[in-house]
Amino acid sequence: MTSTDIRRLTRKDVPQAQATLQLMHAVFEEPSSLLSDAYVGTLLERADFWLLGAFLGEQPVGGLTAHVLPMTRRESRELFIYDLAVHADYQRRGIGRALVETLRVLGSAEGIDVTFVPADNEDDHALAFYEALGGEAAPVTIFTFGAD
Predict the structure, then answer these.
(1) What is the pLDDT of residue 2?
(2) How far apart are CA 103 and CA 81, in angstroms?
């Protein structure tokens, strides 16, 4: 397999962002509507929204979305990984690990040293993956309001 290019997508990368987001929705088997280029461009311009894409050539094979959260216990920010997906044909090849590691390196360069991610307790694959990356599980329950 040729090397995977992992990069944070910016406003100039709207077509690649669209393809990456569609790949992620397909991996999660989620119903989704196509986001407008204007909406995606606005997301990519935000300093508190990060979209990383993993590409083989111009083909996206994985993606990660993260949000920068300002903290109130001290003057700092943390990165919250919201979604991480790798195309089934490319899983278990280090792409997910590379996405998380790239996020952490980019975050560290901006003074963000803490990254966290929720994982469903029933998702054994995700739990094992994040544990293998050195993540420490925290017993927490997330409540959702307003979404069916």
Answers:
(1) 61
(2) 9
